[in-house]
């Protein structure tokens, strides 16, 4: 398991692995947002949590088709499917590797981009915390989506069509935590809901992903 | 024709759009079925003489 | 003689060929009766005026939009557990019908909302949930179309349907949490007090019956189409191999 994790992370971190791309995409998106909605600081501050969440979500989505497609093409997945490690475990590790190489960097980057978006000081901690809790769910749901579309040529667009609706609950609660934190309101209930979704997704999604992956490998 | 008053547009548009959507769905279903039947028949007639 | 016999495609086709000639006119009749009754012969509501006539389209379409998904969920489960092809194909056949019903519910809702709430669209929980449901329909249909092998397609779309159902319900609650709504409560419930008045209620029931019959007829018919296409595909494959 550790070997698989380190292999996946090494592959992702290597040049061309797409590690930096997600972060650059996130950066570019936040730079473009003020051009789109105007430079008014109050407007930017109000939209900042939502923009950061959407940016993280899209950056995560962007790297999903690499999650399994390359391993499918070179036959690694067939090896994994017959390996002693259950496929569920392998997919969990793949989701974890995806999170460590895309989700976590985005979380770390988010306060810096908050500065660009005029995020008021009290907002930083909650944007950070909500992304930290929520992004693992994005990676695991993404692993399911990637497993679902792995056999389809040029499945990238289909993957986003399938995965984005599944991101809705996470996005709603995540952005809600960030927004309430910014406004100084009570955040405990959305935080708990967000954490609940993330934990539930981590518990169940590897099974769903392994099921569809087996169907695809058959 | 009932007097719809100032809401005539909303009501008529709702009926027109819904009924045309349903009609479209039915027509598409009919066409797809006809094509499937024709395809199947073509395949079956080609198949039989060879047996 | 059990229900499972109709899982046999041949028996299913024979049954649907016998039932459909009755079902089509019945559906058309109920639909015409309910809509004509509703459109021409019901009074205006004292608050909503003539817009209340939209209810005969809006409520049945919304009911079917949700129940079509439930039917697909059931079809997906039966396919995954008992592997009856007809079940998977029925789910496939129902998806476009459900999607169209969702669009009808959304469009009539917008046309109704404009004069009543002063806006075509509001990010109200019910409206938003329906839009999300529509996205799930689109994803489901797109996945069916993208996969070449029919059995793999049936498998994958079935799992997507299960997972999608869970997330659709989650989204429903999340959306409730996220925004308070404009939409009124349920127009139909077993609690008589909450129901709309009888003058509207009876034609509404007729219209709902019409929509449900139409849905059943369409699904039976479209499933027949899918069975024929599947058979044609099998014939083609066999010929290619010879």
Q: What distinguishing features does this structure have?
A:
heterotrimer, A: 218 residues, mainly alpha, 0% strand, elongated, C: 242 residues, globular
Q: Separation of termini of chain C?
A: 38 Å
Instruction: Return the structural class of chain C.
Output: mainly alpha
Instruction: Tally the helices of chain C.
Output: 6
**How many distinct beta strands of chain C?**
0
Terminal residue distance of chain B: 63 Å
- Low-confidence parts of chain C, pLDDT < 50 over ≥5 residues? 189-194
* Strand proportion of chain B: under 5%
Helix-strand pattern of chain C? HHHHHH
Task: Give the largest interface pair and sizes.
Answer: B-C, 31 and 37 residues
The structural class of chain B is mainly alpha
The biggest sheet of chain C amounts to: none
Q: Give the radius of gyration of chain C.
A: 20 Å
- Report the helical percentage of chain C: over 70%
Shape of chain C: globular
The residue-averaged pLDDT of chain B reads: 85
Q: What characterizes the major β-sheet of chain B?
A: none
Oligomer kind: heterotrimer
Number of helices of chain B: 1
Overall tally of structural domains of chain C: 1
Low-confidence stretches of chain B: none
Q: How confident overall, as mean pLDDT of chain C?
A: 86
Provide a descriptive summary of the structure in words:
The complex is a heterotrimer of chains A (218), B (51) and C (242). Chain A has 9 helices and no strands. By secondary structure, chain A is mostly helical. In chain A, 52% of the residues are buried. Chain B is built from 1 helix and no strands. Chain B has one helix at residues 8-47. The termini of chain B are far apart. The mean pLDDT of chain B is 85. Chain C has helices at 9-41, 55-82, 85-117, 125-146, 150-178, 198-241. Chain C has one domain (22-241). Chain C contains 6 helices and no strands. Chain C is 78% helix and 0% strand. Chain C has 242 residues and is mainly alpha-helical. Chains in contact: A-C, B-C. At the B-C interface, helix 1 of B face helix 1, helix 2, helix 3 and helix 6 of C.
């Amino acid at each position: 398991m550790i070997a698989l994790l380190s292999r996946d992370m090494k592959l992702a971190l290597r040049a061309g692995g797409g590690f930096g791309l997600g972060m650059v995409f996130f950066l570019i998106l936040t730079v473009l947002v003020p051009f789109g909605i105007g430079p008014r600081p109050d407007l930017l501050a109000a939209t900042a949590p939502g923009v950061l969440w959407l940016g993280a979500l899209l950056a995560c989505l962007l790297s999903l088709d690499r999650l399994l497609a390359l391993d499918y093409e070179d036959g690694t997945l067939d090896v994994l499917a017959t390996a002693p490690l259950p496929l569920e475990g392998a997919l969990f590790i793949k989701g974890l590797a995806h999170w460590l190489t895309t989700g976590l960097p985005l979380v770390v980057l988010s306060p810096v981009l908050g500065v660009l978006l005029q995020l008021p000081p009290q907002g930083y901690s909650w944007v950070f915390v909500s992304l930290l809790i929520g992004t693992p769910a994005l990676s695991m749901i993404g692993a399911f989506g990637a497993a679902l579309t792995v056999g389809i040529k040029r499945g990238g667009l289909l993957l986003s069509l399938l995965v984005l609706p599944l991101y809705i609950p996470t996005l709603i609660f995540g952005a809600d935590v960030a927004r309430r934190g910014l406004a100084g309101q009570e955040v405990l209930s959305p935080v708990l809901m967000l954490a609940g979704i993330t934990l539930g997704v981590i518990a169940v999604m590897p099974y769903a992903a392994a099921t569809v992956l087996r169907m695809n490998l058959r | 024709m009932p007097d719809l008053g100032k809401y005539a547009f909303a009501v008529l548009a709702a009926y027109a759009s819904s009924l045309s959507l349903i009609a479209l769905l039915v027509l598409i279903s009919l066409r797809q079925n006809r094509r499937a039947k024709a395809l199947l028949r073509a395949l079956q007639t080609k198949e039989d003489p060879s047996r | 003689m059990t229900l499972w016999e109709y899982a046999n495609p041949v028996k299913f086709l024979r049954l649907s060929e016998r039932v459909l000639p009755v079902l089509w006119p019945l559906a058309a009749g109920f639909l015409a009766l309910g809509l004509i009754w509703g459109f021409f012969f019901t009074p205006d509501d004292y608050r909503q005026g003539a817009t209340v006539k939209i209810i005969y389209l809006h409520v049945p379409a919304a009911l079917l939009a949700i129940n079509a998904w439930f039917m697909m969920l059931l079809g997906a489960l039966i396919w995954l557990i008992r592997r009856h092809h007809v079940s998977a194909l029925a789910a496939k056949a129902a998806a476009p019908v459900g999607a169209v019903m969702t669009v009808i519910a959304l469009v009539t809702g917008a046309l109704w909302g404009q004069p009543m709430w002063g806006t075509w669209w509001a990010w109200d929980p019910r409206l938003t949930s329906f839009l999300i449901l529509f996205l799930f329909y689109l994803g489901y249909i797109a996945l069916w179309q993208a996969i070449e092998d029919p059995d793999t397609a049936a498998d994958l779309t079935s799992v997507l349907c299960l997972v999608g159902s869970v997330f659709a319900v989650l989204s429903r609650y999340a959306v409730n949490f996220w925004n308070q709504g404009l939409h009124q409560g349920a127009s139909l419930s077993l609690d008589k007090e909450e129901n709309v008045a009888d003058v509207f209620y009876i034609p509404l029931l007729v219209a709902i019956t019409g929509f449900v019959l139409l849905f059943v007829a369409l699904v039976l018919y479209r499933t027949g189409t899918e069975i024929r296409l599947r058979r044609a595909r099998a014939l083609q494959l066999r010929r290619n191999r010879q």
